[in-house]
Amino acid sequence: MRFWPAAALFVIAAAGQIRFEDVGARAGVGFVLENGAKGRFHQPELMAGGIAVFDYNNDGKLDLYFTNGAELPGLEKSSPKYHNRLYRNEGGFKFTDVTAEAGVEGRGFSMAAAVSDYDSDGYSDLFVAGVKVNLLYRNLGNGRFKDVTAESGLTNSSVWSISAGFFDYDNDGKPDLLISNYVAWDPVTEPYCGPPENRIYCHPSSYPGLPNQLFHNNGDGTFTDVSAQSGIGRHVNKGMGVAFGDIDGDGAMDAFVSNDSTRHLLFHNRRDGTFAEIALEAGVAFREDGVPIAGMGAELRDLDNDGLPDLAVAGMVNDTFELFRNRGKLLFEEWAHPSGLALATRPYTGWSIGAFDFDNDGFKDLFCALSHFPNLERYLGRPAALSNRVFRNIEGRRFVEQPAFDAPEMNPGAGFGDLDGDGLIDAVVSVLGGPAKILRNTTPGAGRAYVIRGKPLGTVVRVTLPNGRTLTNHATSSTGYACASDPAIHFGLGQHEAPVKVEIRVPGQ
């Protein structure tokens, strides 16, 4: 357990503004996301950008892993510049490319990164989801990883997986894996969309959906597909983001899957190895008007400090992002409109989304990686490139859009963690056709932070401040869309030195 004073100030901004400085140019991170829409009209080109922020070598500094598209099955051949990349954090916002020595170049057309110590050896392992190629890398603890996909039971060469996340659904101390699958895609039968002289990328309605998958961790380095018996695999949709949280406080982690232009899925953990899909009954399946949005990144976090995780979902331009307040008893209420988030996000297309207390005032804010689809520029009448946005949480009641802090780019992925150990959460954003953004949090006047590390996924922590306010957060590495973030449990304390009470609930204990 640690807490820090407010960070040193590097960017002058008006009081109350959350600010970031892009230090990517001097950080040594040369990664360029190359597998974007290039006019070939292969549907997977629209979905890219996974990032993992994690400490792979246990030196106390968060490292960065980026996914990329090396080749689509049956089409392009691999090129080294399209491989995935791992960067070791040397401190002081300096990173070194260690991809080759670590053995995590990847293969195929990678989409998502998920992180957890699945074999309980003390080192974080890496799962990479992609187009008909999923990979599991076991961390050997010596700076190298071993591809153990073939012997793990996770091999699946027939579906397009777009996001994934680890969570311990049965509280046995071993992290299990949920994979969010998208649509049935084949380059041979790919449909042609748009007029003959003006082809466009197809709407997801042109493709059949796929069921998601749940793999149980056997504890011996292998996994068993329990999709059918758990109930996870009974629902066919077009999965994008995955998020985990204990929505009803019963001690078991539940799962949410955002879907592209179809209803969302909320899996309530029955604590007997099965899940009940309750999105419709809980009020989170659709937008307030009963219309499904093009749901992408999702977060389950307590945004109003009532002890229950709320739900935020990024969507497409004119969708408005979704926000649902958890009212308890497995019921949510629409919160996007009364909080101001709906109006603020209507002009944007959001991909990854993160719920973190960026100014350490005790309330989690929302960071959104933004970019319109490039093929829609002529219809939107505006550039596809957008600046990323933060929506500051004002005492759990409303969200206020902060001024732009970076250049407009095509920004799909975003991962989060304190990269320099100053107590402020930083962000890493992938950019289509350009260098990744390393965004240092330079918020003026930020409060103090209190952080608990090393707890199992699903651990829920509640802290009480000297003024009587209680804050709740939980350990999860799954973030937004296709990304993983540092699972450290972070609290902003405002100007308080430390909490007066800390309550920790570890799953299964």
In short:
This protein is mainly beta and 509 residues long. 6% of the residues lie in helices and 35% in strands.
Q: What does this 3D model show about the protein?
A:
The protein is mainly beta and 509 residues long. It contains eight helices and 38 strands. Strands 2-31-30-29 form a four-stranded antiparallel sheet. Strands 3-4-5-6 form a four-stranded antiparallel sheet. It has a four-stranded antiparallel sheet with strand order 7-8-9-10. A hairpin with a 5-residue loop joins strand 33 and strand 34. The radius of gyration is 21 Å and the shape is globular.
- Helix percent reads under 10%
What coarse outline follows from CA principal-axis ratios? globular
Mean pLDDT score, rounded?
92
Q: In terms of per-residue confidence, which ranges show pLDDT below 50 for 5 or more consecutive residues?
A: 1-15
Tally of alpha and pi helices: 8
Widest beta sheet: strand line-up:
2-31-30-29
Radius of gyration: 21 Å
Q: What's the N-to-C terminus distance?
A: 19 Å
The share of residues in extended strands comes to 25-35%
Secondary structure class reads mainly beta
Task: Give the SSE map.
Blueprint: E1 2-4, E2 20-22, H1 24-27, E3 51-54, E4 63-66, E5 85-91, E6 94-97, H2 99-102, E7 110-116, E8 125-130, E9 135-139, E10 145-147, H3 149-152, E11 161-167, E12 176-181, E13 210-211, E14 213-217, E15 223-225, H4 227-230, E16 236-237, E17 239-245, E18 254-259, E19 265-269, E20 275-277, H5 279-282, E21 298-301, E22 310-313, E23 322-328, E24 331-334, H6 336-339, H7 341-345, E25 350-356, E26 365-370, H8 377-380, E27 389-394, E28 398-401, E29 414-417, E30 426-429, E31 437-441, E32 448-452, E33 460-464, E34 470-474, E35 478-479, E36 483-484, E37 489-494, E38 501-505
Antiparallel strand pairs: 1-32, 2-31, 3-4, 4-5, 5-6, 7-8, 8-9, 9-10, 11-12, 12-14, 13-16, 14-15, 17-18, 18-19, 19-20, 21-22, 22-23, 23-24, 25-26, 26-27, 27-28, 29-30, 30-31, 32-37, 33-34, 33-38, 35-36
